[in-house]
Amino acid sequence: MSMFRAKKFDLGCFTNVRTLRDHSKRKAFEAAEPERQALRYIIRNTTLPARTRAMAQLQLAQMHCYTRPTQIRNRCILGGKSRGVLRDFKMTRYMFRLNALAGNLPGVKKASW
Amino acid sequence: MSVPRARLLDLLKARCELFSTTFNPEGIRTGNKIMRQRLKGPALASYYPRKLMTFRDFQKEFEPLGLEIDNEDEIDRLDHISELKARGKGAPKKKKGPPAPDPRRRK
User: Fold this and answer.
1) What's the topology of domain A74-106?
2) Coiled coil located at which positions (chain A) (predicted)?
């Protein structure tokens, strides 16, 4: 959402609207994480009164969806694709193949036996 | 030979004091699990690489030394645009002021 979007992005990777959105979500989650964890603690603590816990549940459910960690999706830093992204290299399998064959990834080499 | 429960609890209590853990023999859920978790926001937010240096910064660095560097990508882009404009296929000019009301539109 527009309120979470920074006026100026300092990203050095491939950007399209989807990577920018994902980046904004990551930032929003980072900012809201202490609050979310506090609410989660209140909800899980069975020694607290039931009313407090229910209110905490409501409050957590009403937080903006951008502050939710499940909204974050790893995207390719070279093409912005979301599917087939190798976590270790942050790129899709095809980009990984191209870069590995070109020798851009240290320590990666094609197996042959 | 069985050990009484009270004695076992005392042992547990002493152990908790020693290792500074919470004494919770009934296993009541206190939500400490959440408190023990580390914050993962900074790690998630630093997923995408930050901009290190742009070509313009690079040029600016070398300007006081009197060295000129050509940005080939930028030159290629400008060439392409001028070629398009020569063929009359360039992007239209930016409009100034609000658009005039459409005379065909009925109220």
Assistant:
1) 30s Ribosomal Protein S14; Chain N (4.10.830)
2) none
